């Protein structure tokens, strides 16, 4: 078999390049899918709302929020619509309709959190409205969980429960993610490249092993503190 030309790129680099291209393609396809799906759900919600089917509209608006991508406007329009539906239901005394819209809105806010939180400015106002409606529902049904509490006490208690929302710290979560990839990637590189005697005679080998150890430590620390 003929040897490869001296100036030919190493096969390992070609493999990494194609892996990076494949990963970028997957992310791009997933982003386009989410963008298109959010628009489709927004259109379905608008059609259901125009037809007077508010419950179906709320469901589709909730799905539109969950298909969030940073450049999409549909999730934000869906959040505004759910807030508007909740206000309209409150104005006409439809507590069930207001609760349905607010719960869907809160679910959309919580489901789109990650390293960023695009709707977190709405979370506390939604929690406050929900607490008021849940307390009113509890009083209207005369539920045994009242235990003699007043409306104000019920609202305060429900609001405290809604605010009990532990979320991993974005910075430590990021450390855990990067630590995991450094640990796994460094481990594979150490195993496969470390078998090369020429590498062991250079300064690259201890750096590679050190990256693996640091990645593992970062992963553990990120998981512990997140």
What does this structure look like?
With 226 residues, the protein is mainly α. The protein has 2 domains: 145 residues, no CATH class; 55 residues. Helix 2 packs antiparallel against helix 3.
Offer a concise description of the structure.
Helices cover 77% and strands 0% of the residues. By secondary structure, the protein is mostly helical.
Topology:
Blueprint: H1 11-50, H2 54-66, H3 74-91, H4 95-111, H5 120-141, H6 151-163, H7 170-194, H8 197-200, H9 204-225
Helix pairs in contact: 1-2, 1-3, 2-3, 2-4, 3-4, 4-5, 5-6, 7-9
Quick tags:
single chain; 226 residues; mainly alpha; 2 domains; 9 helices; 0% strand
Which secondary-structure class do the elements indicate?
mainly alpha
Count the DSSP helices. Answer: 9
Strand content: under 5%
Kindly report how far apart the N and C termini lie: 54 Å
What is the succession of H and E elements? HHHHHHHHH
Q: Return Rg in Å.
A: 26 Å
User: In total, how many domains does the architecture comprise?
Assistant: 2
Which residue ranges are poorly predicted, with pLDDT under 50 across at least 5 consecutive positions?
A: none
Q: Oligomeric status of the shown chains?
A: single chain
Helix content: over 70%
Task: Give a count of the beta strands, DSSP E runs of length 2 or more.
Answer: 0
Averaging pLDDT over every residue, what do you get? 85
- State the major sheet: none
Q: Shape, please?
A: elongated
């Amino acid at each position: 078999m003929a040897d490869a030309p001296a100036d030919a790129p190493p096969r390992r680099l070609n493999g990494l390049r194609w892996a990076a291209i494949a990963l970028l393609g997957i992310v791009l396809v997933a982003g386009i899918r989410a963008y298109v799906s959010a628009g489709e759900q927004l259109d379905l919600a608008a059609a259901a709302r125009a037809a007077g089917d508010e419950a179906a509209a709320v469901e589709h608006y909730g799905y539109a929020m969950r298909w969030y991508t940073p450049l999409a406007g549909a999730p934000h329009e869906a959040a505004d619509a759910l807030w508007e539906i909740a206000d309209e239901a409150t104005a006409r005394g439809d507590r069930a309709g207001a609760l349905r819209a607010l719960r869907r809105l809160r679910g959309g806010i919580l489901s789109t959190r990650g390293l960023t939180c695009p709707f977190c400015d709405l979370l506390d106002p939604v929690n406050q409205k929900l607490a008021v409606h849940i307390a009113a529902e509890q009083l209207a049904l005369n539920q045994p969980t009242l235990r003699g509490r007043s409306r104000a006490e019920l609202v305060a208690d429900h609001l405290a429960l809604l605010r009990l929302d532990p979320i991993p710290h974005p910075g430590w979560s990021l450390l855990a993610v990067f630590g995991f990839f450094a640990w796994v990637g460094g481990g594979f590189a150490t195993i496969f490249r470390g078998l090369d005697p020429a590498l062991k005679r250079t300064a690259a080998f201890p750096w590679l092993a050190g990256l693996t150890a640091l990645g593992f430590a970062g992963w553990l620390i990120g998981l512990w503190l997140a």
